[in-house]
């Protein structure tokens, strides 16, 4: 009780000291809580985005003989279900065709039966070529490649049970996004990561049911494609599946992916209970969320890691606060001793007071963090189930930051109290360097960090495909070791270097004398005399600025690459797609206000041997001004040289790296490609290879070709274009272009384009996190310098009074304070900017895996860094005004009489 | 001859909410001529240091007038009063008032630094002042390496470096042993005599006060035995 009573008295008796100590803890806790809540909110974001792109949430698989109508009614009556679509599927053992006397056969696959409304609703199975015709089939590009067929050919499907069916091909369909629907629906196969079939055909439901009638009721599929090396985990599936595909009301879904999975599981159980065996539900939405939940956990670690330097810096403010209140501490300790308290009791009282202050600061900071979170991303947070879900984490933050802050404050308090008792001993120890300087732990830390960074290859995050084929990220924990060592070692090394530099008085006094005259000289001498405190303030400011600069660089590069990726996916700023056939003359229609450049673009399915590939036919004269082209897109060539090579010969073609490897092609080789003409008839056209393209606007990731549009038009007599790519110069260009082109066109812009890296943790908009980190860094930096100045006033109260007494006027005193702040500010910001660039580069290297395409160079956001420096300068100016006013308020005669 | 100090009914009252106002200096009349050595003696709390603050222009009288070297301090701005202190007034404090971040000669040259004298022009007068107090061999030493007596001699050298017309000393020997106290008082008296500066010594020590040309007593803010 003695302890707590005196500790509480101490907290109340020294309100300024307590407030200063609580401030650092509050900033640390506030930053950490807002980052934790950002992680919670980002859960809602990734859940929403993951499910937004999902065409079907669940597949209700009907039992043999079940009535589809009553199942549909039952499903539609559930409050979670908003739409249902029929879907039927028949497995085939193989597909075969005979062309020019040669028979070709494939392995097993599936034929899908859907209505036209299915394509319109889900955007799946869109036609790439040809048309949709009742009684005929559209085949996937893989099936067309495997059989070497084109629209107009016929395919024979050999079905389970021995019967077969021959159907005419009317078109080629895109099966992108349908893997989950085409793959096995039982949990055992899905858990084993079974691959979906590649041989896919699509037809109308009536034709599908005709095929289904040829398959015996109990027939099984030939087997599902389990990955090689995995054991067989279940019996083959039924050969015929009748399904009802379901879309849920996403507004009812909890934000957190794990909670959303629980909700989905509850809906599935409820539906199956109602169905009483007439159908089972395969939960595609839950399967899609599986990797997201894992990604999010890593993402939250990453967010906290990004914020950790800020928290450490904020906690060091407690140390500064303790320094600023050293005199008050000594006076109060003397009072306690006069009352008979032992040294141990005095220490305990001060540590208990530090703990009380830290807990109060942490609680206030947590409240501020929650407020910031609700202001910054309240919508996402509410969608995630409110901040109450994060209460346990917030409590851990409060206790953790309070404990660390108490430790940080206890060390200087101990020194101050022991200094009171053994001042002489402290005098003797003053010349002794800290142990980390004597043992060169700073240099060792930096060296170890470099070694670990090099050994780990500098990359910590790698994109991978999970068992369901969804892209996800892996994050190596060891990747955090290098930055941790570099950061710690670098901080200590900076302290050593800045400490050494600030002890060199001659140059500092000389430099400061020029702008600040007598005040500058006084400041120069003062900084030299307080080299330890000054170097701590400079390093604190430098690290705070470097922390902010590094996250700004990371964010700017991340957003640039998101933009580049979206541009690559769309092709340019805008894409205008005609609904009927038009030729390149429409370019003149597209030109107008807000349009910087326009280029016609053709994407046709062509055949290299039997393999179907995308042929991108372009105008090399106008494309570079319209679409994003980087040197890194081309192997062994710049973008300009690649376009020049294409333009120099009409029959030039750039091939993808995969095509070049598969067909052992080198520059100059002739390539015969079968290209469809206006009637869909394939014509053999000769091209000459002009180079290798690794990426190209609108191109798929794997195999593609880039050729001259004029040559393709001439060779095929088909001048129809697929779309126009447009570079916009104003934000309204899209709307104006749509108005100019009319209803027969569909104009898409980047806002409607999902970047391909928009998956899992990488889909989170980091701007708010960056704003939080940078804001707290500025606050920490400003308070650090303010505390340094105020601690200087506290230490030198009598000196300052002497200066006033012997004739220093207010202007000179203000100049002295401004000069001290300028040294700390300028050196801190310069060091911070330089270190921030290095840390930013390291962050980009560690997180390189999430960038696709990789950035040529990191983006240095000069405007943001300039604003950061300006904000720090303003904060310093405020700190100078506060300190100067404090000097003005010093009672000179009273201070001169103090001992 | 124009007096260096001319106080007419100078009054300084301190009051804070909830307390009885204190008349620290009450109706003081005082005139000091150039080269005159005046001591003001009195017990603690009698208002000696407050009066010294008024004479230095650190504080302003609530009533009456304080004229220093012909300037009515009430008519001067804070910056003008500070300018007057650094160019015409030398002050010595009981607690030395030295700046720990400066070495000995830099401390001595401080009034010149504040007056804007160029660095290369400060060294000579500062060295002369140090020579005057017998510390020319310690010019580049650190303050914390000096004894109490040496520190006060440095403070005296600083007070003399600008060749002031008025020397104000607030218990200059209060922290020193008898020998050092004597040395410091001798230095101040000699400097006053040689330079023609008026010297005002505030002290509670009768022996120190006895060295003055004129001895004044102060009690409850009032000056007695004055002229």
Describe the structure concisely for a colleague.
Chain A has 899 residues and is α+β, with helices and mostly antiparallel strands.
Question: Layout of helices and strands, plus pairs?
Answer:
The complex is a heterodimer of chains A (899) and B (227).
Chain A: H1 2-13, H2 15-52, E1 58-62, H3 68-76, E2 81-92, E3 94-99, E4 102-105, E5 109-113, H4 116-122, E6 126-130, E7 137-140, H5 141-147, E8 154-158, E9 164-174, H6 179-182, H7 187-191, E10 200-203, H8 205-212, E11 240-248, H9 257-275, E12 279-283, H10 284-324, H11 326-338, H12 343-383, H13 391-421, H14 423-429, H15 435-438, H16 441-455, E13 461-465, E14 471-475, H17 481-502, H18 505-529, H19 531-570, E15 574-578, H20 587-590, E16 595-608, E17 611-618, E18 634-635, H21 639-648, E19 652-656, H22 657-662, E20 670-676, E21 682-693, E22 704-708, H23 709-716, E23 723-728, H24 733-741, E24 745-749, H25 767-795, H26 797-805, H27 810-846, H28 862-888, H29 892-897
Parallel strand pairs in A: 5-10, 7-9, 17-22, 19-21
Antiparallel strand pairs in A: 1-11, 1-12, 2-5, 2-11, 3-4, 3-8, 6-9, 7-10, 8-9, 13-14, 15-23, 15-24, 16-17, 16-20, 16-23, 18-21, 19-22, 20-21
Helix pairs in contact in A: 1-12, 2-10, 2-12, 2-13, 2-25, 9-10, 10-13, 10-19, 10-25, 11-13, 12-13, 13-14, 16-17, 17-19, 18-19, 18-27, 19-25, 19-27, 19-28, 25-28, 27-28
Chain B: E1 5-14, E2 22-32, E3 37-41, H1 48-56, E4 63-68, E5 71-72, H2 78-88, E6 89-92, H3 104-108, H4 110-114, H5 119-132, H6 148-160, E7 166-170, H7 178-195, E8 198-203, H8 206-209, E9 214-219, E10 222-224
Parallel strand pairs in B: 3-8, 3-9, 6-7, 7-8
Antiparallel strand pairs in B: 1-2, 1-4, 4-5, 9-10
Helix pairs in contact in B: 5-6, 6-7
């Amino acid at each position: 009780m003695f302890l707590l009573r005196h500790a509480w008295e101490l907290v109340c008796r020294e309100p300024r000291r307590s407030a200063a100590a609580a401030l650092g803890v509050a900033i640390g806790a506030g930053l950490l809580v807002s980052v934790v809540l950002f992680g919670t909110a980002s859960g809602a974001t990734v859940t929403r985005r993951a499910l937004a792109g999902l065409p079907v949430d669940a597949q209700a698989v009907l039992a043999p003989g079940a009535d589809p109508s009553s199942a549909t009614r039952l499903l539609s009556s559930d409050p979670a279900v908003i739409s249902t679509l029929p879907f039927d599927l028949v497995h085939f053992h193989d597909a075969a065709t005979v062309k020019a006397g040669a028979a070709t056969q494939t392995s097993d696959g599936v034929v899908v039966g859907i209505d036209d409304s299915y394509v319109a609703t889900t955007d799946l199975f869109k036609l790439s070529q040809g048309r949709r015709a009742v009684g005929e089939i559209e085949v996937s590009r893989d099936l067309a490649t495997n059989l070497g067929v084109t629209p107009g050919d016929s395919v024979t499907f050999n079905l389970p049970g021995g019967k077969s069916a021959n159907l005419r091909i009317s078109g080629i369909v895109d099966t992108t996004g349908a893997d989950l629907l085409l793959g096995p629906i039982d949990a055992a196969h899905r858990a084993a990561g079974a691959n979906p079939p590649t041989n896919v055909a699509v037809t109308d439901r009536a034709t599908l049911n005709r095929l289904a009638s040829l398959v015996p009721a109990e027939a099984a599929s030939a087997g599902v494609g389990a990955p090689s090396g995995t054991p067989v985990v279940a019996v083959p599936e039924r050969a015929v599946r009748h399904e009802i595909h379901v879309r849920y009301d996403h507004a009812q879904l909890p934000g957190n992916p794990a909670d959303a999975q629980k909700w989905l599981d509850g809906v599935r159980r409820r539906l199956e209970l109602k169905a009483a065996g007439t159908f089972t539900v395969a939960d595609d939405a839950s399967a899609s969320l599986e990797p997201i939940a894992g990604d999010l956990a890593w993402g939250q670690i990453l967010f906290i890691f990004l914020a950790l330097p800020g928290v450490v810096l904020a906690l060091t403010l407690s140390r500064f606060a303790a320094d600023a209140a050293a005199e008050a501490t000594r006076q109060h300790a003397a009072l306690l001793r006069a009352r008979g308290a032992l040294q141990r009791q005095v220490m305990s009282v001060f540590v208990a007071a530090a703990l009380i202050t830290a807990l109060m600061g942490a609680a206030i900071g947590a409240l501020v963090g929650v407020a910031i979170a609700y202001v910054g991303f309240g919508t996402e947070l509410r969608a995630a189930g409110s901040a109450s879900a994060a209460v346990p984490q917030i409590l851990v933050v409060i206790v953790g930051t309070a404990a660390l802050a108490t430790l940080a404050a206890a060390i200087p308090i101990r020194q101050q109290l022991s200094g009171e008792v053994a001042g002489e001993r402290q005098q003797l120890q003053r010349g002794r360097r800290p142990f980390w300087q004597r043992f060169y732990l700073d240099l060792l830390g930096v060296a170890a960090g470099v070694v670990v960074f090099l050994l780990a290859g500098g990359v910590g995050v790698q994109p991978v495909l999970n068992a369901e084929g969804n892209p996800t990220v892996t994050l190596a924990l060891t990747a955090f070791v290098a930055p941790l060592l570099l950061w710690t070692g670098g901080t200590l090394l900076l302290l050593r270097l800045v400490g050494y530099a600030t002890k060199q008085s001659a140059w500092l006094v000389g430099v400061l004398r020029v702008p600040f005259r007598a005040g500058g000289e006084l400041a120069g001498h003062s900084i030299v005399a307080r080299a330890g405190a000054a170097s701590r303030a400079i390093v604190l400011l430098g690290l705070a600025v470097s922390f902010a600069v590094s996250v700004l660089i990371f964010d700017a590069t991340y957003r640039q690459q998101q933009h580049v990726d979206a541009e690559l996916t769309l092709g340019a700023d805008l894409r205008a797609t005609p609904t009927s056939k038009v030729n390149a003359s429409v370019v003149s229609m597209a030109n107008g206000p807000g349009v910087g450049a326009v280029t016609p673009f053709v994407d046709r399915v062509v055949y290299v041997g039997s393999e179907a590939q995308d042929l991108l036919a372009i105008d090399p004269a106008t494309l570079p001004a319209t679409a994003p082209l980087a040197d890194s897109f081309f192997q062994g060539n710049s973008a300009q040289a690649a376009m020049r090579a294409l333009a120099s010969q009409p029959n030039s073609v750039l091939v993808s790296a995969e095509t070049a490897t598969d067909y052992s092609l080198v520059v100059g080789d002739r390539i015969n490609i079968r290209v469809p003409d206006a009637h869909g008839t394939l014509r053999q056209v000769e091209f000459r290879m002009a180079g290798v393209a690794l990426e190209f606007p609108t191109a798929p990731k794997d195999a593609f070709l880039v050729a001259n549009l004029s040559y393709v038009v001439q060779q095929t007599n088909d001048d129809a274009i697929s779309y126009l790519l447009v570079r916009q110069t104003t934000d309204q260009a899209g709307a104006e272009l749509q108005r100019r082109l009319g209803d027969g066109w569909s104009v898409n812009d980047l806002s409607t384009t999902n970047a391909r890296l928009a998956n899992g943790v990488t889909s989170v908009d980091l701007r708010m996190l960056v704003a939080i980190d940078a804001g707290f860094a500025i606050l920490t930096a400003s308070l650090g310098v303010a505390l340094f100045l105020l601690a200087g006033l506290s230490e030198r109260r009598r000196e300052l009074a002497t200066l006033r007494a012997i004739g220093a006027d207010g202007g000179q005193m203000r100049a002295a304070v401004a000069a001290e702040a300028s040294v700390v500010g300028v050196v801190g910001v310069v060091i911070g900017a330089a270190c921030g660039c290095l840390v930013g580069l390291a962050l980009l290297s560690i997180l390189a895996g999430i960038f696709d395409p990789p950035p040529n160079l990191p983006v240095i956001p000069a405007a943001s860094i300039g604003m950061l420096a300006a904000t720090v300068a303003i904060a310093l100016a405020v700190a100078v005004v506060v300190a100067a006013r404090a000097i003005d308020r010093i009672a000179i005669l009273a201070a001169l009489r103090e001992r | 001859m124009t007096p260096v100090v001319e106080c007419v009914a100078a009054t300084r009252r301190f009051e804070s909410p909830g307390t009885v106002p204190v008349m620290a200096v009450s109706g003081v009349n005082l005139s000091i001529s150039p080269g005159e050595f005046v001591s003001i003696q009195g017990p603690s709390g009698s208002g000696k240091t407050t009066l010294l603050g008024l004479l230095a222009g650190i504080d302003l009288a609530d009533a009456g007038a304080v004229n220093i070297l012909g300037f009515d301090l009430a008519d001067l701005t804070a910056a003008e009063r500070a300018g007057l202190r650094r160019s015409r007034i030398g002050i010595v404090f009981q607690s030395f008032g030295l700046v720990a971040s400066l070495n000995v000669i830099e401390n001595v040259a401080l009034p010149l630094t504040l007056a804007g004298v160029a660095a290369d022009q400060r060294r000579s007068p500062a060295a002369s002042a140090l020579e005057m107090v017998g510390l020319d061999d310690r010019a580049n030493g650190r303050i914390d390496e000096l004894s109490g007596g040496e520190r006060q001699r440095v403070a005296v050298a600083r007070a003399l470096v600008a060749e002031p017309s008025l020397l104000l000393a607030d218990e200059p020997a209060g922290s020193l042993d008898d020998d050092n106290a004597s040395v410091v008082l001798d230095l101040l008296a000699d400097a006053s005599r040689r330079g023609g500066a008026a010297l005002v010594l505030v002290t509670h020590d009768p022996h120190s006060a006895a060295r003055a040309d004129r001895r004044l007593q102060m009690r409850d803010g009032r000056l007695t035995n004055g002229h």
